Amino acid sequence: MKHLVLSLNSCGLFCTPLKRQTTHLQKLKKLILIMKLVAVLLLVTCIQVSASVYSQSLSLSKKNASLRELFNEIQKQTGYNFLYSNETINDTKTFTVNFKKAKIDYVLNSLLADLPLEYSIEEGIILIVNKEVKSPVTPAKADPIIITGKITDEKDEPLPGVTVRLKGTSIGTSANADGVYFLKIPEMKGTLVFNFVGYLTEERAIRSEKTIDVKLRPDSTALQDVVIVGYGVQKKITTIGAQSSINVESLKQPVANLSNAIAGRVAGVIGVQRSGEPGYDGSQIYIRGISTFTSSSPLVLVDGVERAFSNIDPEDIANFTVLKDASATAVYGVRGANGVILIETKKGRAGKPKVNLQINQGVTQFTKIPEFADGVTYLQIANEAYHNSNPTAIPLYSEEKILATASGSDPDLHPNVNWMKEMFNDFGQNRRVNLNANGGSDRATYYLSVGYYDENGLYKTDELAQYNSAIKFTRYNFTSNLTLKLFRDTKVDFGASGWISDGNYPGRSASSIWNAAYIMPPTVIPVRYSNGSIPQPRGEESNPYDMLTQSGYVNNVTSQLWSNIKVTQDLGPWLKGLSIYGMFSFDNNNYHQISRTKTVDTYFASKRDDYGNLVFDQTRVGSSYLGYDRSNGGSRQFYTEAAVNYSNSFGDKKHDVSAMLLYNQSDRTDAFSNDFINAIPYRYQGIAARTTYAYDNRYLAEFNLGYNGSETFNTGKRFGFFPSYGIGWVTSNEKFFKSLANSIQFLKFRGSYGIVGNSSLGGRRFAYISTVASRTGYSFGRNTDNNFGGLDIGEYAVNVTWEQAKKANVGLELRTLKEALSLTLDLFMEKREGIFKPRGDVPNYAGIQATPFGNLGAVQNKGFDGTLVFNKQLSNDFSLELRGNMVWNRAIIKEDANALWPYPWQQVIGRKLGQRFGKTALGLFESEEEIANSPTQTGSIKPGDIKYKDLNGDGKIDNYDEGPVGYGSIPEIVYGFGPSFTYKGWSLGAWFKGISNVDISLNGEGLQPFQKEGTRGNLFSNITDRWTPDGSNPDPWYPRLTYPSTSNSNYDNSTWWIKNGAFMRLQNVELSYAFPKKSWLEKFGMSNFRVYAVGYNLLTFSSFKLWDVELGDGKGAQYPLMKTYSVGIDCRF
């Protein structure tokens, strides 16, 4: 075979040129062309290799070997995988054979000649089944009856090898390569039992039909052969660590950012999305909550390498696993304290090429947009607030002004602007397309995928502008995984994947635009004057529409290339169960931003002249030209990993032993560093080890360790040892439990304890080295005016090292109701010690300007998480699944190195991490007499103002009366649940996501009316729900309104402004129909065609109504989250 060489210059492909913007399209075209070349190369390779599949020969010489041992040797020489049940193979008979360069079919025919077994070879799998035998208990008295049918999975793909038997007899058969079975039975009665590894067993009663088709459903709770663990795989029945997997189908949501699809989907994972802006809409992800003052982000490994996962195409994901306790994460040492997410991308499967195409088109809109009061309401409420502050003064706004605003007769001078309506469109769109193919032979398999996603935001644009300021986010993905079996015991995996994203945005940031909309009242300026001029008042307030449409645009292009090669060598011929592998990866990331921004001339019209013309004052002198600025960023990472693995069974297969020893190191460089510190590579290296033991799949033990080092710390503190221990007991495999087997099919208890680390210090590097800072003043004595400028020691720390997390976990796994109901429950406790933070107990008179840092904090986190699943086939055509999960955690501060406060309610020790502090609101004052008899408060207090609790009883309200209030911004409870139904080709599913024990602290414009001199700030539409002197509203949302709002203490941090942030959201609803295979599909060469409709973020149930509750604290001035209505097709060839 001729060799083709394809050289890719990664920098040339992924580094964005510093030329004009149009070259981005050229780069995308180049990427697509290279994808095509890679696809052709891999397909040609696989076709060449597959030509030799069925002409293989082997040599086999054994004495007194069991059939199982001979199958293992055939598998090693040919690469074929054997599929059979333990009941089928009898190891009591031995064979003495001597084959030399014999064909595989000849060898199999010779071995099975005298046995009641037969075989078939399909797609690299040798299936061994029993020959059909008539039942001795029900001898046929007439011609046998043939029952036939087709067995498929949930996607209507055929399932070869499924065992079909007549219940209570020895009559049985198996499905062929097309999933079709033929079974001879003596009479038309009885029950057929369908059984296949990894799928739920199904039973069908025999009535009058001779054709019985069956669709098997995956057994999500079954004891699969292996599961993904840290740096490898392990038998699921013997796993001790707390870990959860996500059904990858649930990740395929109409969203760009994968992090938004996992919240509420898996027990133990907390996710909160704070923005819906395309390209910046990722969720904050925590595993079992927050346990530290520094970084709480989990470690994410994609194909074994630390990488970000937000922009992965969900179609390319084969496995998504979350590791939660120390037994599961200790092997990651200083990186494992916050939990680990393991993602594996898809690989090819031997067989004919299979092509999948998925297209999804959606319409988007905001889940909720803030509603502001109209201009008339604003003017009337302003008059009321002004009267509350100045009872004898004339109104701010006359009746003529209010009437002119209401009539809209002169919108230039009396505007009435709904800024939300003027700035945003009602609908946007998104689109997702993926095309992938996989196939190969037993010598080479491939998986190729290309993906496309685009989304338009809801910002309006100026059609007259000569540039595009609309939000548009576009991303191109590609994935290529190739597996080659070079020799009998040598396998090579090569992977290359990446993405390019292109985001276009207005010249001003989303936060600036939204803040401007909150600040600008509806009655100050119009969107535009009637002569086309751009309005802008004098002062701090800005025209939101001007910022949105007249400030230019910003273009961001990001590219990411991942590549890795892994060589695995099976050393079984020297020592059974021994293997080694080595892996190397290179990742390259580049970021390029072009800013073309400007400011335009703005004016303010104060009146009309005698001729009715507007009289303008120019408030800003701008430019008609777009400015130019650019910035670059990027990084390169090299990663190396090598490991030795051993796994074997002894003593009649009752003793299972496995071990792993691994070395890894990483080197990441900031490619565009602008200072000496950031130019130094980020490095770590370490050793990981694991050993497991299981006796008779009943008694389990496991030991893990990580010995890791980071360049962040000083010599002597750089490396750490992180061990974990675990034990388990599969109670249901005990003899005494057999009497309960009909009630409880599986029961396992497990427990673990271990230590893991966190080397992230909140962005600090080399924290043990002090910095030098230039300061404007150094204070001496009580008179702070006596100061001198000069150099001073900046941030520094003494003997700093990693945080330690001591984690304990106990859990159980249960299956009952004939395996229809499963429960996984874990209780956990963590003590995080040595948290990096500044020392807060150094007094000012010590003369230390920069507070020293150290490993000073400690937090205890405890809680539980669990998953409950009910999965039942209710009839031949109808199945039901109910699934739910939940996590609750609470983190308590144990040490913080701060000075003690005078009162116990002010202490943070013993409080929740993230605890809010504020005053306790007792209600509103009802009379002057009540005010006179209450503790004094700041400002001019009147009836209708908030009354606070005097915690220390000193007769005045001040900072010493601030105690713990509310829960905090991070939820303590996160849950998800939903049903799914299937009926023939139809399926309907829904998923609800919710959070609880969380609140929102309100502040800012809109919530604190008439700030500054009273002219700053819009008003929410609920402003009418306020206190009034007549007492007509006994339970108002707003206290007494004043103009300006700073005349009293109504807007201090207090329980009055803390609102319940709990919500439940209908996150997903999907209705789909899969056409039968025997329909028109075969005419077009399709094996499956499914149409579906999806709704995302459709409904939100919450007591909080001002903005999307998930945006959290503040005033809601963020780009809202999106809801999506989409339709799609999924076809397979």
From TrEMBL:
| Residue intervals of the Secretin/TonB short N-terminal domain | 80-129
Record has Transmembrane helix as a keyword: yes
As for membrane topology, the entry says: Multi-pass membrane protein
Keywords annotated in UniProt: Cell outer membrane, Membrane, Transmembrane, Transmembrane beta strand, Transmembrane helix, Transport
Occurrences of domain TonB-dependent receptor plug (ranges): 237-340
Cellular component terms per the entry's GO annotation: cell outer membrane
Q: Does the keyword Membrane apply?
A: yes
- The organism's superkingdom is given as Bacteria
Where in or outside the cell it occurs: the entry states: Cell outer membrane
Membrane-spanning segments? 31-54
Homology family: Belongs to the TonB-dependent receptor family.
Q: What is this protein called?
A: SusC/RagA family TonB-linked outer membrane protein
Q: Which organism is it from?
A: Arcticibacter tournemirensis
